[in-house]
Amino acid sequence: MTGIKELTGLMLELEDMVSACARCGACQAVCPLFRETGREADVARGKLVLLENLMQDVFNDPNGVSKRLDRCLLCGSCELNCSSSVSALEIFIKARAIITGYTGLSWIKKAVFRLVLARPAVFDWIMETVVTFQGLFIKPVNNRTDTSQPRFLSPLITDRHFKTLAREPFHSKSGLINTPPGASGIKAAFFTGCLVDKFYPDIAGAAINVLKHHDIGMFMPDGQGCCGIPAVAAGDIETFNTLVAYAMEQFEKEKVDYMVTACSTCAYTIKKIWPMMFKDETIVLKGQVEAFAEKTLDISRFLVDVVGIKDQTGENRDDTAVLVTYHDPCHLKKSLGVYGDPRALIKASTGYVLREMTEPDMCCGMGGSFNLRHYEISAEIGKRKIEDIRETGCSVIATSCPACMMQLSDMLSRAGEDAAVKHVIDLYAEGIYQ
Description:
about 425 residues; alpha/beta
């Protein structure tokens, strides 16, 4: 637990940020959670009112404050549409850190974060052990979305249709990658991310192949860890700092021009949350974190804005082209302002034609751990997204976030839809190697 003096200092940091809220209610119109529940406590304005009294309430009812703060997708819709420019995500993340600093972590979270997630080698070993036995406890339910269900009743998984762990994680296939720049003259580090590594290794494989195709030198250290978003979202700054320091230790071994990732949440975490939340380390390491944040890019932005990809739109428009619609991940569009580049990547992908859905940037309802704690609400938000997808008539749904892919696959599978969910880099890679 954090000391009272330190907690008071952290609370004072939020006072000016919270006071900027004009209580206009504009966040109500865009909050996906409020859209489902209609509860003022679920919208940003309600949480900010709560935080005005945080210094008192954290001592009187810390668990109550924590529960209200946890009912948030951290999608950034409120922040993007705020006329007062309130940094809602920063406020909520720091507030969670304050609450956790006062109450401490539950023994379950402490075990998961500090004994497993903070130790990449242990985390990898546990996941690889689970893969060995997962077939005994699951049954496939939809080949198109590649989803399964548990064979036995599970209170955690409930009636989800979920993506299973890959038989072999990407890091086991690839190991260390360190190649010099080719004709491009560019060298980029590749940050895999937990979900891509352990659930969607083909995405990482496609990304590496595309970078090779464009003569990009690459550096991918063996034994990468998590970007830290699960820990910081739970308020565990100790684990978060450990993971960021570990990442710097791995990636500072080689000089690169860019850090590239195919996970929009990892890109957001590295670019925004690392410099915002990384504390209590040397000035040199803090500088390294900020430098890596500056050169981190989502892979679609890297390919479109840095490499310069060839637009294949003319070749796509024929009778055999597959209709694809695109879902904007919240962290990519709302937090990083990246939305044109993934679409440009789709248009440069041979054999696909983009057809937009009604609300492509509406949150899918995943929200990381929000999906685990509030699955019923998460699913209701997801159903709205599936309705928009269904109206397009598309057989492929593309996105740039593996967590969104999981949510979309779950919702499509449960709805009985015959549609595939793919990462935009998969579509682009297909055209290169046809």
